[in-house]
TrEMBL record:
<dbReference type="GO" id="GO:0005737">
    <property type="term" value="C:cytoplasm"/>
</dbReference>
<dbReference type="InterPro" id="IPR001078">
    <property type="entry name" value="2-oxoacid_DH_actylTfrase"/>
</dbReference>
<keyword id="KW-0012">Acyltransferase</keyword>
<keyword id="KW-0808">Transferase</keyword>
<dbReference type="GO" id="GO:0006086">
    <property type="term" value="P:pyruvate decarboxylation to acetyl-CoA"/>
</dbReference>
<dbReference type="InterPro" id="IPR004167">
    <property type="entry name" value="PSBD"/>
</dbReference>
<dbReference type="GO" id="GO:0004742">
    <property type="term" value="F:dihydrolipoyllysine-residue acetyltransferase activity"/>
</dbReference>
<dbReference type="GO" id="GO:0031405">
    <property type="term" value="F:lipoic acid binding"/>
</dbReference>
<feature type="domain" description="Peripheral subunit-binding (PSBD)">
    <location>
        <begin position="219"/>
        <end position="256"/>
    </location>
</feature>
<dbReference type="InterPro" id="IPR036625">
    <property type="entry name" value="E3-bd_dom_sf"/>
</dbReference>
<keyword id="KW-0450">Lipoyl</keyword>
<dbReference type="InterPro" id="IPR011053">
    <property type="entry name" value="Single_hybrid_motif"/>
</dbReference>
<feature type="domain" description="Lipoyl-binding">
    <location>
        <begin position="4"/>
        <end position="78"/>
    </location>
</feature>
<dbReference type="InterPro" id="IPR023213">
    <property type="entry name" value="CAT-like_dom_sf"/>
</dbReference>
<protein>
    <recommendedName>
        <fullName>Dihydrolipoamide acetyltransferase component of pyruvate dehydrogenase complex</fullName>
        <ecNumber>2.3.1.-</ecNumber>
    </recommendedName>
</protein>
<comment type="similarity">
    <text>Belongs to the 2-oxoacid dehydrogenase family.</text>
</comment>
<dbReference type="InterPro" id="IPR050743">
    <property type="entry name" value="2-oxoacid_DH_E2_comp"/>
</dbReference>
Length: 521
């Protein structure tokens, strides 16, 4: 293509159809060689694709969510003639596992995807060196990519366990680091080494020493980590606005300016920080083993992602939960009857598909529940994709039934079973969990009466359902009958919905369940 230079995804090993999770450039940007263009994330690693050359971006060909493989054009640079250039990926492996008694840590090669027996081509440190978290320790080079393995913690290098030319895979010990609370804190508080060109720390950074562990665990790519170091920002306290809570360049810049970024939701081990300008107490650091035997198990990847999302949603959305109940006596009889009729077809109906239909009916009547906030604008969606919370061995997932308004109850039941199975087997694809307009979280098969479900942003409401139970009802206080009663807990975003609308939504939802003929109205 004359006048444009295609910049393509380079050889990224066995990775294929990898989603773009961040785009760092826009048309008109002047980029230098090695400036990151996009970030890709497979289930194994995050890769930033740096620019192979200097240039001015004419157009950005990919967008967040696109799946790319080797050879996909990412951006086009302005140029004199038809040229092509391939970037070289910088793979940001997750922080290396460390195993250690207090004060000494063995740093190992982290999960580096499908790469195995990769030669060490460079060792950046020697015994006696002080390293900070994220400082590169070694470089590995396969025939596909060059990878730098960063230090997961601050400390002093005690012993190097490998040499240039050694072939390593995940788990190989790289070096032994003298570390521990004292070392980490001292190192974090230390001024940057003379080689560093870091500008003076921002006021935010001066307010406290960087929590190196939280920094190492923060969900961000190498370029963002580098920027955070340069600006003196404690990544552990930054809220990520990217996919799955990934921290972006703007989040770090906003935080450095003392901006609106609320505290980074942390998955269990760390927390605290400021929320909306209010400083919270630091998360207590307790040596639990002092009080009795303990086992430690790092949260799995899905749990970490959902923890970050749940925390953000809980902190950012002003939740209110309205409780109500539905009389499902007749519905239950109908369900049992239909299950008998459908027995031969292999379809089994639980209450949930009926609730999906009731949700669609209520969403059609109250469209602001099927909307999302885009700044100060409310986006009403003319499609009804209903998510349902599924409990899986890896944690909570929310598969989505698309166009639930157009599907029959048996079709919804079949699709739900298939999606729940995929989720439990860890085979569900990201696009099967995207695009939801409203969610249902059912604990009905387990128990409980009421709870507060957390809204699945950018949705504005979620219906929580517990186990149906027999309850005495009376219309006049004189005659009493037993009715099968379903407890409902609707959480709603008070920025969009008010209490009266929520109460009406619940009443309509319950009325539809009590008499499904109302779906027709
Ligand atoms: N009241 C009474 N019984 C109920 C019920 C309710 N509200 N909801 C389900 N049941 C019954 C079902 O009818 C079924 O009974 P039978 O086997 O006799 O027919 C039994 O409980 C088990 O149902 P199920 O859980 O297998 O099926 P489901 O369609 O109700 O739910 C799924 C499917 C995937 C949503 C569910 O298995 C699940 O994962 N639930 C957990 C969701 C969750 O974790 N929510 C919390 C999120 S917040 O952390």
């Amino acid at each position: 293509m004359s006048g444009l230079i295609d910049i393509k995804v380079p050889d990224i090993g066995d990775f294929k159809d990898v989603p773009v999770i961040e785009v760092f450039v826009k048309p008109g940007d002047r980029v230098k060689a090695e400036d990151p263009l996009v970030a890709l994330e497979s289930d194994k690693a995050t890769m930033e694709v740096p620019s192979p050359r200097e240039g001015v971006v004419k157009s950005v060909v990919v967008k967040i969510g696109d799946k790319v493989s080797e050879g996909t054009v990412i951006v086009q640079f302005e140029g004199a003639g038809a040229e092509q250039a391939e970037a070289r990926p910088v793979v940001s492996a997750p922080p290396s596992p460390v195993s250690a008694p207090a004060g000494v840590a063995e740093v190992r090669v982290p999960d580096i995807g499908d790469f195995k027996d990769v030669p060490v081509i460079e060792i950046f440190v020697k015994p006696g060196d002080s390293v900070k978290a994220e400082d590169p320790l070694i470089a590995l080079e396969s025939d596909k990519a060059t990878m730098e393995v960063p230090a997961p913690l601050s400390g002093t290098v005690r012993e190097i366990k490998l040499k240039i030319g050694d072939k390593v895979s995940e788990g190989a010990v790289i070096l032994v680091l003298a570390t521990g609370e004292g070392a980490a804190a001292a190192s974090a508080a230390a001024t940057p080494t003379p080689a560093s060109t870091a500008p003076a720390a921002s006021p935010v950074a001066q307010a406290g020493a960087v929590d190196e562990k939280a920094f190492a665990l923060a969900y961000a790519g190498p370029a963002v980590r580098k920027l955070a170091r340069e600006l003196g920002v404690d990544l552990g306290k930054v809220t990520g606005s990217g996919n799955h809570g990934r921290i972006q360049r703007e989040d770090v810049e906003a935080f450095a300016k003392g901006g609106a970024a609320p505290s980074k939701p942390q998955a269990a081990s760390a927390g605290g920080g400021g929320v909306g300008g209010i400083d919270l107490l630091p998360w207590p650091k307790i040596d639990f083993a002092k009080f009795g035997p303990v086992d430690r198990k790092e949260l799995g990847r899905i749990k970490k992602i959902s923890a970050a999302n749940l925390h953000r949603n809980w902190v950012v959305i002003p939740h209110v939960t309205t409780h109500d109940e539905a009389d499902i006596t007749e519905l239950e009889q109908f369900r049992v009857k239909m299950n008998k009729e459908l027995e031969k077809s292999g379809v089994k109906l639980s209450l949930l598909p009926f609730m999906v239909k009731a949700a669609v009916a209520a969403l059609k009547k109250f469209p602001e529940f099927n909307a999302s906030l885009d700044g100060d604008t409310l986006v009403y969606k003319n499609y009804w994709h209903i998510g349902f919370a599924a409990d899986t061995p890896n944690g909570l997932m929310v598969p989505v039934i698309r166009d639930a308004d157009k599907k029959s109850i048996p079709d919804i039941a079949n699709e739900m079973n298939a999606l729940a199975k995929l989720a439990r087997e860890g085979k569900i694809k990201p696009d099967q969990m995207q695009g939801g307009t409203f969610s249902i979280s059912s604990l009905g098969g387990i128990g409980g009466i009421y709870f507060t479900p957390i809204i699945n942003a950018p949705e504005v409401a979620i219906m929580g359902v517990c186990k149906g139970y027999w309850k005495q009802h009376s219309a006049d206080g004189k005659t009493w009958t037993s009715r099968l009663t379903l407890p409902l807990s609707l959480s709603w975003d008070h920025r969009v919905i008010d209490g009266a609308a929520a109460a009406r939504f619940n009443v309509h939802f319950a009325n539809v369940l009590a008499d499904l003929r109302r779906v027709l109205f």
